[in-house]
Amino acid sequence: MQGHGPGRTADIRFRLAGILLLVAQLAFIAWLSLRPLAATWVTASNLEPLASIRGDLDVGFAEATRRIARELLLYAPLGVLLPLAGGRVDAHRLASLLRTVLASALISCAIELAQSTVAGQVVDVDTVLLNTAGVALAHLAVVPAVRARLRRRGRGRAPAALLREEAASGVTPTISRVGIAP
């Protein structure tokens, strides 16, 4: 990935791949979350944080683990795909994490609200919390390491190779340490 100015953005191929994968992931989430379910009985909506998790733990550890893992993993790819679609290599770690978590929380809230109109689906605030936590964990596990590697890879390139690439692309090469002659 080559830097493009002070903000250094990713190569267009990476951004395009990120956008396409992001759209595919969001379509999968929408299909899975918004399809009608044939149920003779459904639980009431849960607007109390952690209530359904406590209820699952009361039923059994295996059921609670399965449900929590499902909710953590469903949105987790967004933790990597949102920054990839954004394409900024030199983004601040905390700002990137906050943007990604906020965007995924808004997406999760929107899908939960849309579920209230679908037969057999109920709104659960714990789902939003677990989905957002999954995104944050995936982001923290992958994105900083990948960005650091890309930055090292970009710095490790020889200046002559960069100048040849700029000349081949039609960009006028500039060397910052050369000043104006007296």
UniProtKB/TrEMBL annotation:
Superkingdom as given in the UniProt entry: Bacteria
Cited Pfam families: VanZ (PF04892)
Keyword Acetylation in record: no
InterPro entries: Teicoplanin_resist-assoc (IPR053150), VanZ-like (IPR006976)
Annotated VanZ-like domain residues: 24-142
Keywords noted in UniProt: Membrane, Transmembrane, Transmembrane helix
Membrane-spanning ranges: 12-34
Protein name: VanZ family protein
